[in-house]
Specification:
26% helix; eight-stranded mixed β-sheet; Immunoglobulin-like; four-stranded antiparallel β-sheet; single chain; globular
Amino acid sequence: MAPRLASRSPALLILLALLLPLIAACGGGVASTPLAAMPTQPPVAASGGGAAATAAPAAPAPTAAAAASDSAPKPADAAGAAPIGAPAIAAMPTRPPEAAGIAIQPTAMPAANTQQQYTPLKAGEVDDNADFNDYLNYLRSAGGIRAHTVDVSERYILSVTNGQQPVLDARVRIFDGQQQVFEGRTYAGGKTIFFPNAIGVSQNAQQLRVVIEKGNSSTEGQLIRGQDGSQSFVLRDAAALPATPRLDVLFLLDATGSMGDEIGQIQQTIVSIAERIDRIQPRPELRFGLVAYRDRGDDYVTRVNDFTANVDEFQGLLLNTAAGGGGDDPESLNEGLHAAIQRVGWADDAVRLTFLVADAPPHLDYDQDYDYVTESQAAVSKGIKVYTIAASNSGDEAEYIMRQISQQTLARFIFLTYQQGQNSGTPGDTTLHQVDPDNFTVERLDDLVVQIVQRELALAQGVA
């Protein structure tokens, strides 16, 4: 057969002569072991730590853009599956590199979930109770705002001490005759806030009875209307604080589509805030909670994650919250605020803080809805301060309502700041909100919130 083949195809013989050396150089033939049955141990481990017999082609150096992309976490395509787009080496054994003979250089690991690069958000804050006359002027000058009108012009800030220290979480009730018209819990600093006109107390009731209790201690006093807006009461023998201060911090997050432009930055900022609060010394009994809300007709209206002392767990819940839905400008802030106040387990005898992050006002046209004014009053009754944070493109109605919520819960209004004339985009030092530029300073948002928490703890201990 060979002679006949050679005689018929001399060119074939020449081709075979050329190919035989190449086949020999490649190992003499086709591997007889199926590929799936070959060992998956990395070549460096199989050779006892020496160099592999045949080096793989060197991968090209990543570009700066690719390196930045690779540093971001990739979503998993299924539980336990490798991240989408992960290289094939992810399927290799997960044996520690040291066992494979690879030397590991010690490196400083980044804090959990903060390895992504992001531009720090900047913000300012105003205290509408400290600048109360300016706030009243703001309310009077705001025209055409779709919001509930609440008469806060008559305001009393009541302070409770045990004679030496401010008393946290004292129960304060106010009576017009035999009818209870108000109930609140004292915040850090031993204070609560009372608006008689807002809850319809008769102008004829010029003297109101005040009953204050905590534990086995109780006292009564009188609130004389028309006098000083700050009045003090002594609750003798009341415990000012538990032995270890308790701190509950809840983030109430607008997770609608309009927040998509900066929700990642906000999430990373909150991660930083949580890590820094967790390092406060002396460390309080600390818990974090998260409530996300969207709007009716979306995948969900509210998503409630009750308090946890596990900071990593909280961060995981936060980073798994995506922006979506919405559609129109108002959102279900009413229902979100209700969930934050009523559907989580706030600790007793604790500093209780909510940070509401949003860019839109609540719907005021829904049937059978909650009401942000009623929920703000409920927050006072539970001793929960609601700090509001206005995100990008927050309009006049969002600002008005967010300032109402914070002012009525003895908290402050916080707003992100941007470049001159802008209400979104690159962080800067200015705002389009109706606040006096001389009454606020601009800081990083995470610095500002951590300072607020530290201030609240100091107030609770009577050192601020």
